[in-house]
Each structure stands twice: as structure tokens, then as C-alpha cells.
Design a protein that fits this description.
By secondary structure, the protein is of the alpha/beta class. The chain folds into 2 domains: 185 residues, 3-Layer(aba) Sandwich (D-Maltodextrin-Binding Protein, domain 2); 197 residues, 3-Layer(aba) Sandwich (D-Maltodextrin-Binding Protein, domain 2), CATH 3.40.190.10. It contains 18 helices and 14 strands. It has a 5-stranded mixed beta sheet with strand order 2-1-3-13-6, sandwiched between helices. A 4-stranded mixed beta sheet has the order 9-10-8-11. Helix 2 runs antiparallel to helix 15, helix 10 runs antiparallel to helix 11 and helix 11 packs across helix 18.
Length: 420
């Protein structure tokens, strides 16, 4: 009997020794964690909800909310570049999934591979295969997506359209047909905001002319920017711009949305963070206070972007960052964040009962539409192309010369390694 007890103690001891390295390697995180993002103002409550959840799970970590204001992260990316190149990375940072991260910080070997985290958490089954490809290279998986946004959405107020005798246009030809009548009523047909929202509008117009297949070929170098269909997209874009507000460069995307809400404009093309703004900040009821439709000519296509977070090499608090990423990828955290943000969870097991009518509609389209990536929000092109595309846009805006703009875009695509 004594021998048997001794054997049991030996087995238990060996089991504890086997487990001990794992336990020792994963201490409860403590210290400070800097979370770098551009979620400020109306987008702040969604981030704050995540930080509060993290604080309950890891009370020994002090979170520093390092937010840099500026629509679509234009200011934050500049600050981040300085810090990353200067060897002073934040604990983790918000970045658009896709080439914005991979084509900039992964290729320069400044991010850690998260494949082991994905394996531990079972995320390869939780996230769609197409999204995983977007987050990955042959060398690894590089960020944790917290949401899915849709870029190609047209927003309007149903009551106003009824008053003006207008229906949401299914094509740009329908929009161009009704726009003069709206102007005659003193209504701006299409509200537009600051510079980045011009590119945001352009990608919806281009998608309407190219369709999902040719849009993808454009970024694979299989369709030239000088091809007739792309030139035609620029020409159509010029016609659409003629019916936007002349003061757009001085307006934020929220102010452009406000024009629609206040009845000053009929429509606005913006990502579905506008739904979060209208539902959470303005307290409007989806379907009644505001309505939506795919941007003209893009029905059946879902132009997506995804906000994500990764693990920088030499992150100041690696364990706290891994705990943040582990929480972000969970169903619970994503279903806390996205209803407030005005986005949907990328997880296939999301609890849709927690989402409003717009987001349930978006989730349905996400699972059934053709999925394409956004240019304006970092999915399809690297940082070099995105930054210099502003110059291409300036060439077009200065003279509306579609052919000259197409030539400039083709040259840029070659320089950025997208075309050959």
C-alpha cells in the first residue's frame, strides 16, 4: 500500500513539473499598456468599453489610451511612423487589416507573428477563411481583427426622401437623373467631407463601374489603370462630384453626415461607422431616423475594411499586449465593441441579437455578398500607394482629366509594386 501511495505522489509530481513551465510562462500581466488608436470623439465610447472590460480581466495593468484624433487615422499614422522608425513602438496599435499593416510594418520585420495565439484560441475556425488570408502571409498571421466595416453604403433620411419625392438610387445614372431636381429644391444631392472622404467616394464609384472581379484584378496588377473601364470610372466620378457641396474640404465626415440628418443634403456615401455615429451619438433609430442602401451600382458587393491590433517587435509590455489581443478576439469583447462602434463582428458565431437593424442587415450581406477590399482604408494597397494616391486625386480634381489621372495612377502602381 505504501508503495502504491509513493507511486501516485511521483506521478502527480511529474505532472506538476510538466505543467509548471506553462504556468510560469504566462503570469498575470501587470504594469502599463499603451493602446494607440485614432478612435476619438464619437468613436471613443466603443474603445472605452473594451478598455473597461480589459480592466476587469486584468486589474493590475494600467491602460494608457493614446488616441490621436483625425478621420481614418491620417494623423495617427504619421505619429506611429515616427515612433516605429524611432524604435519607440506603443504596446499595440490600431491598424487596418491587410496591406496597410503587412505592406508597411510586416515587410520591415517590425511585427511579431501571432499564429500561436490563433492556434491557442481556436480563431482559425472563428474567423472566415477569406479574412484570415487578408491577415496573413506565408510567414504568419499578423493582427487580430476586432470588427468589419462596410465602405460602400449610401445614407439618407427616409422622411426627407419621401418629402422630396425621391427614392434611393440603385445606379449612378439614377442619381445623376434626380440630382438636378434636388438642387432646384435647395438640397445638396450628395454630402462630402474632407480629403480622405473623396477617395472613399471614389472607390465606391470605381467599384460600380468595374465590378468585384475587375476591382480585384486592379490590385493584382492584372488590370491596367489606363484600361477603358478604369478611365470611364474617373469620368463618372467627375460627374458625381459636380453634385457635392463646394465647402467639403472644410468638413469632417461627421459634419457631412449631419448635412443629411438636418435635411441639407439628400445622400452621403460613408462607411458604416456613420451608423454608429447616428445611432449612438445622435440617438437616431435605424430604419426610421436614418436609412441605408448599397452605394449606387454596388448592390451584391460588400467593400470591407477591418480595424485590427497587432504585437510590435519590442512592445514595452509584451504580456499585457498579448492579454489585450486575446481579449479582442473573443466573442464577448467583439459583441461589446461592435454594436457601439457601428460595425459587425468578424467572428462567424457573433450574437446578432445584440445588434441593431442596420448591423443585422450588414451581417447578412457580409455572409452572402461578393467581398472586396477598400483602398481608402488600407486593405488592397500598401502605404506607399495609399499616400501617393492623394497626388493622383489632386491631378484629377485640378482639371477632371480622366486620361491624365489614369496615366498617373498607373505610374504610381508600378512604383509601389502593384503593377508591372
Amino acid at each position: 500500500m505504501e508503495t502504491r501511495k509513493w507511486l501516485v505522489l511521483v506521478v502527480v509530481g511529474l505532472m506538476l513539473l510538466a505543467v509548471w513551465p506553462v504556468l510560469a510562462a504566462s503570469p498575470a500581466p501587470s504594469g502599463k499598456l499603451e493602446i494607440f488608436s485614432w478612435w476619438a470623439g464619437d468613436e471613443g465610447p466603443a474603445l472605452q468599453a473594451l478598455i473597461e472590460r480589459y480592466g476587469k480581466l486584468y486589474p493590475d495593468v494600467k491602460v494608457v489610451n493614446a488616441t490621436v484624433t483625425g478621420g481614418s487615422g491620417v494623423n495617427a499614422k504619421a505619429v506611429l511612423k515616427t515612433r516605429m522608425l524611432g524604435g519607440d513602438p506603443p504596446g499595440t496599435f490600431q491598424v487596418h487589416a491587410g496591406q496597410e499593416l503587412i505592406g508597411t510594418w510586416v515587410v520591415s520585420k517590425r511585427m511579431e507573428d501571432l499564429t500561436s495565439l490563433y492556434n491557442q484560441e481556436g480563431w482559425k475556425k472563428a474567423f472566415p477563411t477569406g479574412l484570415l488570408k487578408l491577415l496573413s502571409t506565408q510567414q504568419g498571421i499578423w493582427s487580430v481583427p476586432v470588427n468589419i466595416h462596410r465602405s460602400n453604403v449610401m445614407w439618407y433620411v427616409p422622411e426627407n426622401l419621401q418629402k422630396w419625392g425621391v427614392k434611393p438610387p440603385a445606379t449612378w445614372d439614377e442619381f445623376l437623373a434626380v440630382a438636378p431636381a434636388l438642387e432646384a429644391k435647395g438640397v445638396v444631392p450628395l454630402a462630402l467631407g474632407e480629403n480622405w472622404t473623396v477617395t472613399h467616394l471614389w472607390e465606391s464609384v470605381a467599384l460600380s463601374r468595374l465590378g468585384p472581379d475587375k476591382w480585384q484584378k486592379l490590385w493584382e496588377g492584372k488590370l491596367a489603370w489606363t484600361s477603358p473601364e478604369v478611365v470611364d470610372a474617373w469620368k463618372l466620378f467627375g460627374k458625381v462630384l459636380a453634385y457635392t457641396n463646394k465647402d467639403h474640404s472644410s468638413l469632417s465626415w461627421q459634419q457631412a453626415t449631419d448635412m443629411v440628418v438636418k435635411g441639407q443634403a439628400a445622400f452621403n456615401i460613408m462607411g458604416d461607422w456613420a451608423a454608429g455615429y447616428m445611432a449612438t451619438t445622435l440617438k437616431l433609430q435605424p430604419g426610421k431616423g436614418f436609412g441605408w442602401a448599397p452605394s449606387p451600382g454596388t448592390g451584391g458587393a460588400f467593400m470591407m475594411l477591418s480595424d485590427s491590433f497587432g504585437l510590435p517587435v519590442k512592445s514595452p509590455n509584451r504580456e499585457a499586449t498579448l492579454a489585450w489581443l486575446r481579449m479582442l478576439g473573443s466573442r464577448e469583447a467583439q459583441d461589446i465593441f461592435n454594436p457601439l462602434k457601428g460595425s459587425i463582428s468578424p467572428r462567424v458565431d457573433s450574437d446578432l441579437s445584440r445588434y441593431n437593424a442596420y448591423l443585422q442587415s450588414a451581417a447578412k450581406d457580409w455572409r452572402s455578398n461578393a467581398i472586396v477590399g477598400s483602398l481608402a482604408h488600407g486593405v488592397v494597397a500598401n502605404e506607399r500607394f495609399m499616400n501617393d494616391f492623394a497626388t493622383v486625386m489632386e491631378i484629377f480634381l485640378s482639371g477632371h482629366n480622366a486620361e491624365a489621372t489614369a496615366n498617373a495612377a498607373q505610374a504610381l502602381a508600378i512604383q509601389a509594386g502593384i503593377a508591372h
